Amino acid sequence: MKNLRILPGEPPPLHDLVLTRTWPSRLDLKTEIMDTIINSLRPRGVLSEGDEQWLTLCLDEAVVNAMLHGNEGDPGLSVRVEVAADAQSWTICIHDQGEGFSADAIPDVTDPASLLLEHGRGIRIMREWLTDLVYYRGGATISMHRRASSPESVADRSDQES
Amino acid sequence: MPSEFLNVQAYENIVLAQITKERLLDAPTINTLAQELTLLLDRYPKISLVLDLAAVDYLSSAMLGKIVALYKGVKTNKGRMAMAGVKPALMPLFKVTQLDKLMEFFPEAKDAIFLYKRKPL
Fold first, then answer.
1. Could you report the per-residue pLDDT of A42-79, keeping only the tens digit for each?
2. Residues of chain A neighbouring B69 (CB-CB closer than 8 A)
3. Sequence-ordered list of residues with C-beta below 8 angstroms from that of A74, at least 6 positions apart, any chain
4. Contacts of residue A146, Cβ cutoff 8 Å, sequence gap at least 6
5. What whole-number distance in Å separates Cα of residue B65 and Cα of residue A121?
6. Which of A118, A153, A158 is nearest residue B65 as measured by Cβ atoms?
């Protein structure tokens, strides 16, 4: 996938942390993890109407990727979550214990030749809604950032423009 | 055909498959649903399938992949497939992945059924 930012180093430290927690890398905990993250942001007033649906989707993709691809389904490993929020934006970092990945391994599903692939759409969907999506530690940390005033999605913007 | 997540009504080879689950996020749900949908292709050759998502609020990329697999199976059997009732909040998922260019979308299932009845395969 073109333009996917995968950096080798650690992510910059987060300020205004509202949640730091580590969970076992077990898919049966996915809903608990997602609910805990959303509940940490809800009282901060940075989630507008419609945000929770998109955020749920992004978290689902990120947590599943961390557990299944990063940690290769090993329930003995863990995922660490950090959530930061201020009045205008939020950032969520999810760290797995894997080796990371290469952008070349992620297909560009908008390429007509890849349209019929049955995988590889998760990152594309996340990039659509997030203000910024960056991977650190070679891909073993995902950093999702969104400004509260961000447009819903490019698809919506193109609808409005047409 | 009893199903946990699916209501199926068939009018000869026009098959309406209504997904009844609101959240299509968990792997067991998605895999069960995909198996049930695939069985329709075995049961109805050259199917005209209307997949009704009116009840669905959450849809993961894994489920999108299953829908693509289903679409490919339908096409392999020389059938056709329509998506119906997709909520406005979910439509961007199909747009950003360009699946809206691959499949036909209808506001409601009855619109697709009406078209399929008028134009039999």
1. 999 899 878 888 999 999 999 999 999 999 999 999 99
2. 118
3. A25
4. A51, A89, A90, A129, A130, A131, A132
5. 8
6. A118
Q: Which residue of A has its CA nearest to B73?
A: A116
Residues in chain A: 162
Instruction: Say whether the ipTM exceeds 0.95.
Output: no
The contacts found for A72-77 with CB under 8 angstroms, 24 or more apart, are: A72/A98, A73/A25, A74/A25, A75/A24, A75/A25, A75/A26, A76/A24, A76/A25, A77/A24, A77/A25
Cross-chain Cβ contact A57/B102 below 8 Å: no
Please give, rounded to a whole number of angstroms, the shortest distance from the CA of A12 to a CA of chain B. Answer: 29
Q: How far apart are CA B16 and CA A156, in angstroms?
A: 29
Among B65, B92, B95, select the one facing A119 at the smallest CB separation. B65
* Nearest CA-CA partner of B48 in B100, B107, B106: B106
Task: Say what angle helices B27-43 and B61-76 make with each other, to 10 degrees.
Answer: 10
- Amino acid at site A33: I
CB–CB of A153 and B96 under 8 A?
A: yes
Does any CB of chain B come closer than 8 Å to the CB of residue A124? yes
pTM for this one? 0.88
Partners of residue A64 in chain B, C-beta under 8 Å: 27, 60, 62
- pLDDT tens-place string over residues A81-104: 999 999 899 999 999 999 999 998
Instruction: Give chain B as a 3 state SS string.
Output: CCCCCEEEEEECCEEEEEECCCEECCHHHHHHHHHHHHHHHHHCCCCEEEEECCCCCEECHHHHHHHHHHHHHHHHCCCEEEEECCCCCCHHHHHHCCHHHCCEEECCHHHHHHHHHHCCC
